[in-house]
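Summarise this fold before class:
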Amino acid sequence: MELLKIENLSFAYPKTEKKALDDISLTLDRGSFSLLCGQSGCGKSTLLRLIKRELAPYGEKNGRILYCGEPLESLDVRISAGEIGFVAQNPEEQIVTDKVWHELAFGLENAGCPPEEIHARVAETVEALGLESLCGQSIFSLSGGQKQLLAFASVYAMGPKLYILDEPTANLDRETIERLHDQIAYLKSRG
């Protein structure tokens, strides 16, 4: 089943003649894994941000983006926020609290999850991603790689159907990249 479909998508930032994206079409099925490659500045991050409508850049957009057959702009806010997860290239853009545990719980709290569900999902995330040693730490004491892993973990705790990862291994050491790879493979196997 189609999870995401992009049809003839073009996008231009304000006051620019050159389009950041020109006539992009692609389809992603549930359970699929796709990698978007290209030179720096070719529009990869722009495309990914357009898929996460809350982060979509301002500009002129033509074409359609459909999530589960529905145009992004028609999605209920809770579906858009909860089912489409986004991990930014720079984790500083999305970390909003002061403690690791608070950051992992933040999205779930805002989604109105009951406290017992929040505790269970945060605990499962901590165990799955090996974050036990970080759980009580201040965000400000984390390395860039630890912040990147935390950004992924915060999205993972939400349990989205679609993960959008913008350069997810930036700042990560080899061991953490392997752990992240294992979690992505696990998520893919769940479909």
